[in-house]
Amino acid sequence: MKKIPGLLSISLRAVTLRSFFALCWLLAAGDPAAGQQLRAGYVVTTAGDSLRGAIHVGGQPLDRQRLVRFVPLAGTSRRHLGPTHVRAYGYVLDPDTVRYVAFFLSSGPVGTDGLFLKQVVDGPVQLYERYAANTAQRGTAITRREWLVRRGDQPPVNTYWWKFETDAAAFFRGCPALQADLQAGRYQPRDLERIVRAYNACGTAPTSPRRTGEH
């Protein structure tokens, strides 16, 4: 298998349509619903190998964080792979490519075992989406969406716990204009994607090197 330097070097368009549709046809013959939930995709193993095939995208967001259900082009047997075996995976959802990166968050309010976090923004600062299970009053199970920011290779920071104006201004201090807007209350937590993109486009934002797809 060909070694790759990182997940962004993979072109999903390199997956031949003939091979992908043949794989979907074989799976759908045994389970039509499964065939409808497949997308052309890839996994990057912890050894750095890239495997192309199909990703099963059904289920809940929490499911996609725990495991990737992957079918290699070379066969029709579905494999359930976790963060200890896969460091990143992705699939085509036209017109975009959806990417998940494995992390092991072992301390603080986000402490957990390995999870795949959905990458929303890439760049000097990355933005990730995470769903967390919680228990509401009377024992009702609920799921909340959280946003994590990551500078370079540093551990992700969960913004759910931020005092937003103060903590966001401190985190994005590398861009003075953006920092001033944050301190003035011109952004809300719902604007995080726009904030991260603005920071990455800022001429003074740090551009430390990063190895995409690492734990």
Characterization of the model:
This protein is of the alpha+beta class and 215 residues long. The protein has six helices and ten strands; from the N terminus they run ααββαββββββββααα. The chain has helices at residues 17-30, 32-36, 61-66, 164-171, 176-183, 192-201; strands at 38-45, 50-56, 68-72, 79-81, 86-93, 96-104, 114-121, 125-135, 141-151, 157-158. It has a ten-stranded antiparallel beta sheet with strand order 4-3-2-1-5-6-7-8-9-10, with helices on both faces. The longest helix has 14 residues, at 17-30. The two termini are 21 Å apart.
Secondary-structure map:
Layout (H helix, E strand, L loop, with lengths): L16 H14 L1 H5 L1 E8 L4 E7 L4 H6 L1 E5 L6 E3 L4 E8 L2 E9 L9 E8 L3 E11 L5 E11 L5 E2 L5 H8 L4 H8 L8 H10 L14
Antiparallel strand pairs: 1-2, 1-5, 2-3, 3-4, 5-6, 6-7, 7-8, 8-9, 9-10
Helix pairs in contact: 4-5
Please tally the helical runs, counting DSSP H or I stretches of 4 or more residues. Answer: 6
Largest sheet entry: 10 strands, antiparallel
Please trace the helix and strand order, writing H or E for each element. Answer: HHEEHEEEEEEEEHHH
Structural class: alpha+beta
Strand order of the largest sheet: 4-3-2-1-5-6-7-8-9-10
Radius of gyration: 19 Å
Give the fraction of residues assigned to helices. 10-25%
Cα shape: globular
- How many β-strand runs? 10
Mean pLDDT: 80
Question: What are the segments in which pLDDT stays under 50 over at least 5 consecutive residues?
Answer: 1-12, 25-30, 209-215
Question: How far apart are the termini?
Answer: 21 Å
Residue fraction in strands: 25-35%
